[in-house]
Design goal:
The chain is mostly beta strands. Helix content is 0%, strand content 13%. It is built from no helices and four strands. A four-stranded parallel β-sheet has the order 1-2-3-4, with no helix packed on it. The two termini are 20 Å apart.
């Protein structure tokens, strides 16, 4: 992760963080819990998703495809608005 990356969700609540080579999700993502509806972290090198994913209480769609995930955290089930999970290619 690069410390100086500047990113934030667009006006529709979408945050695209694809092809960044991340092995872990940047903790800054959790600060967007008040507005993040769609998170795309596909095509990285993620081996796990942290339990902090449950902090994104407005999240409706998660794309974590094409990483190195073997499972999803149980905390993901607390996301009441989550309707779509794309996790193929792990």
């Amino acid at each position: 992760m690069e410390d100086n990356e500047d990113y934030e969700p667009d006006a529709s609540g979408h945050l695209e963080l694809r092809y960044r080579g991340w092995t872990a999700i940047d903790p800054r993502v959790w600060s967007f819990a008040h507005c993040l509806l769609n998170l795309d972290v596909s095509f990285n090198q993620l081996k796990t998703l942290p339990d902090e994913i449950s902090n994104l209480h407005l999240l409706q769609e998660l794309n974590c495809s094409c990483n190195k995930l073997q499972s999803l955290p149980g905390s993901i089930f607390s996301l009441a608005w989550l309707r779509v999970i794309k996790a193929n290619g792990n």
